[in-house]
Amino acid sequence: MAKITLDNLAHSYLPNPASEADFALKELNHDWEDGAAYALLGSSGCGKSTLLNIISGLLQPSQGRILFDGRDVTHAPTTERNIAQVFQFPVVYDTMTVRDNLAFPLRNRGRDEGYVAQRVQDIARMIGMEDVLRRKARGLTADAKQKISLGRGMVREDVNALLFDEPLTVIDPHMKWELRTQLKTLHRDFGHTMIYVTHDQTEALTFADKVVVMYDGRVVQIGTPEELFERPAHTFVGYFIGSPGMNVIPAQVQGDRAVVNGSDIPLGRAYRPPEGKVEIGVRPEYARLSQTEGLPVQVRRVEDVGRHKIIRAEFFGHDINIIAGEDDRVSADMNRVTFDADHVNVYANDWRVQGEAA
Amino acid sequence: MNKTVNQKAWFLVLPVLVLVAFSAVIPLMTVVNYSVQDTFGQNEFFWSGLIWFEDMLASERMWDALGRQLMFSGIILAIQVPLGIFVALNMPKSGVWSSVCLVLMSLPLLIPWNVVGTIWQIFGRVDIGLLGYTLDAIGINYNYTQDTLDAWVTLIVMDVWHWTSLVALLAFAGLKSIPDAYYQAAKIDQASRWKVFRYIELPKMTGVLTIAILLRFMDSFKIYTEPFVVTGGGPGNATTLLSIDLVKMALGQFDLGPAAAFSIMYFLVILLVSWVFYTVMTNLDKQEG
């Protein structure tokens, strides 16, 4: 187990990257705390897997250093780093039995057979495959194979970190939930540093203590699920986390007011006029439909999703979403919207601007 | 539900039937026809039953040729398959050099059999051939027209040169189909190079290797042109493989009946060995599944 430090790390798949756009992973400084569970969240192609492969040593970064507990391992091969990694698509050794598959990483490190047998038994119980240990891995279903891959990742107790690269993509929903719970249990019991790559926000938010959100090769925010929800540091975080995502509306900001199309929206804090493209962001949870107060809005559709209703509406030419409680009344004459002033965030060029107490 | 009856569908199958009849069934039946008849000339034939088959089975000449043939096929398979895999493993996986390698390796495959034979026939000659002359000059007594071992070595080296590329290309295709994640997982699992080969590459190549072995077996078992051009079956009968012997019998001695019986048994041996090999390989696959 180790603290993993990324120091000025960046990576480009091109031999001679000229501009920032050539980098799949933009410059990054970050400490992965020893024993924490992280989720690396972002849409496909944002550099998540690149980052993971650099940590595990499958990829050499174009610049910067990686330190494990202060020791520079940037150019150390994967084996020296003692890392376990599980990939998106199942990797099993077809001609081996399930038992041999699980024992493989231990045997390659020359552990004695008694220990190996014990460990394999424990892991088999954890992934629910005790009764197929004798079978050849070939011909098992995709999710059985992926469980074996997960098992192989977890079988070593002394790893520096466990990396998961969207490991549950091919697993069916029921099993997904169960395996995720088991990963959490494993984390609680053994305290490995875990980094879990996913593009599924539910997975990220339920698994991790800290969520790292990536966008276009850059880490845009690192925080607890609550922080990501309440104070998205970047409009992408607001949009990507939450269902539906945050409403982002172009506005002018003056002091503790935002002005959209000549109408005032009160803000919880005061801002100096920000530079560049200015927008305000409000989560649908903090918008409320009203008959009398607020600004005019045109309701287009109401979707009842069970626990709440999602109202799709048009607000000065912008699509916005409003969430109303299950029992809240929504009627045709409700054509105004109010925003909870404390939960309106201000963004300049997509990045959140800190306000001062009003 | 009633089945629709429509006899016109036969017309759609007809072209295939006609083609197969002319390309395979009718020629084969001619051979079968000869194998059960005898003639004293004048194009008069009479029924002789299975006597030619009995003759051939009792003929030492055929068993010797079969023995030589099995040895030849066995040796070239034992060399070409491992060598082909080795070459495939060491080829550049992508980029310009990969293409260059592929083209270079395909070249021997494109040369016609008798040209290959001629190339090696000249190459090995002691008087004017580069190989024969050089070996002679450095004091190795080499002469494929007189020495049995030299003749065999020449034929085997020639076949390895001609056909190893096929195995290598097929193995290479098998290797290319392995996703990167397997190699990455192997690194994470700290697998040695040998284990990567044994547990990832070899299992993924089984399918193409089965085909490669099958093709090489069938082809080598039928080989005629190259040994005919190089050694003509000699010295003595040392390199008289099955088809060389067959041609001698059918065209040299004009023993149509025995040659026909010989052909049929020859064909059945190839069919049987290929079928057994294929069935065993595919069943192994299923059992493991």
Quick summary of this structure?
The complex is a heterodimer of chains A (358) and B (289). Chain A is an alpha+beta fold and 358 residues long. Chain A folds into 2 domains: 4-240, Rossmann fold, CATH 3.40.50; 247-357, no CATH class.
Which properties best describe this structure?
heterodimer, A: 358 residues, alpha+beta, Rossmann fold, 2 domains, six-stranded mixed β-sheet, four-stranded antiparallel β-sheet, 9 helices, 35% strand, globular, B: 289 residues, mainly alpha, MetI-like fold, two-stranded antiparallel sheet
Write the CATH fold name of chain B. Answer: MetI-like fold
Number of helices of chain B: 12
The major beta sheet of chain B can be summarized as:
2 strands, antiparallel
Query: How many domains make up the 3D coordinates of chain A?
Result: 2
Structural class of chain A: alpha+beta
How many β-strands of chain B, per DSSP?
2
Biggest sheet: strand arrangement of chain A:
6-7-8-3-9-10
Q: What is the H/E order of chain B?
A: HEEHHHHHHHHHHH
Beta-strand content bin of chain A: 25-35%
Large-scale geometry of chain B? globular
- Mean pLDDT, all residues of chain B: 88
Mean pLDDT of chain A: 86
Measured by residues with Cβ under 8 Å of the partner chain's Cβ, the largest interface is: A-B, 28 and 18 residues
Describe this structure in words.
- The complex is a heterodimer of chains A (358) and B (289).
- Chain A is built from nine helices and 23 strands.
- Chain A has 358 residues and is an alpha+beta fold.
- Chain A folds into two domains: 4-240, P-loop containing nucleotide triphosphate hydrolases (Rossmann fold), CATH 3.40.50; 247-357, no CATH class.
- Chain A has a six-stranded mixed β-sheet, sandwiched between helices.
- With 289 residues, chain B is an all-alpha fold.
- Chain B contains twelve helices and two strands.
- Chain B has a two-stranded antiparallel sheet with strand order 1-2.
- The model of chain B has no long low-confidence stretch (mean pLDDT 88).
- Chain A binds chain B through residues 53, 56-58, 77-79, 83-85, 87-89, 91, 93-96, 104-105, 108-109, 136, 138-139, 149, 152-153, and chain B through 179, 181-182, 184-185, 187-192, 195, 199-200, 203-204, 288-289.
